[in-house]
Amino acid sequence: MTDGGTARRSRITPEREAELYRAVLDLLREVGYDALTMDAVAARTRSSKATLYRQWGGKAELVVKAMRSQKPGGIADIDTGSLPGDLHAIVDREDDCVMERNAALMRALAMAAHTNSDLRKAFKELLVEPEMEELQRIIRRAVDRGEIRPDNPALDYLVHMLVGAFATRSLIDDLPPTREFLASYIDAVVLPALGVPTH
């Protein structure tokens, strides 16, 4: 992140930022990404378009950061002393209702990202890559503790497994992702693939 980005964001209070993000997510649910405009966000939040562009640069960055604001903080600091404990702690922080709403938004954004390179870039840089880095830290600790062999081929697919479970639950089962489902998926699929015993 550049200093310019930090300076840009410091002009709006955290409360105002949270209010703007809520409005963006509401609009996203109502009209979808393609039909969402900075004019509509400005009108909904009683702000100027100039302020929005100065603060976020554009629609893609604003939408992805609004999505990120829904997540309950970083996961890199979770350290229960075991990989099963860490993965279950990540899932336990989520709320089923919020998860269901976020899954619907993520599906809509993933669809829009196919045809919008700005959104795809922001999605990857601001949401996917930071989460992957945090997850890698948790995995490195598990390798250092001797829980996972460093040459385990499933390590390269951990993010795919977790994102896949979250994203495809509604597609395959016509049900939202829930903490119970993700916890059972971790025990049945993720940990065995990594060679970690489940208790």
UniProtKB/TrEMBL annotation:
DNA-binding region boundaries: 37-56
Source organism of the structure: Streptomyces thermocarboxydovorans
Protein's name according to its UniProt entry: TetR/AcrR family transcriptional regulator
Annotated ranges, domain HTH tetR-type: 14-74
Classification lineage: Bacteria, Bacillati, Actinomycetota, Actinomycetes, Kitasatosporales
UniProt keywords, alphabetically: DNA-binding, Transcription, Transcription regulation
Stretches that traverse the bilayer: none
Origin: domain of life: Bacteria
Gene3D superfamilies listed in its UniProt record: Homeodomain-like (1.10.10.60), Tetracycline Repressor, domain 2 (1.10.357.10)
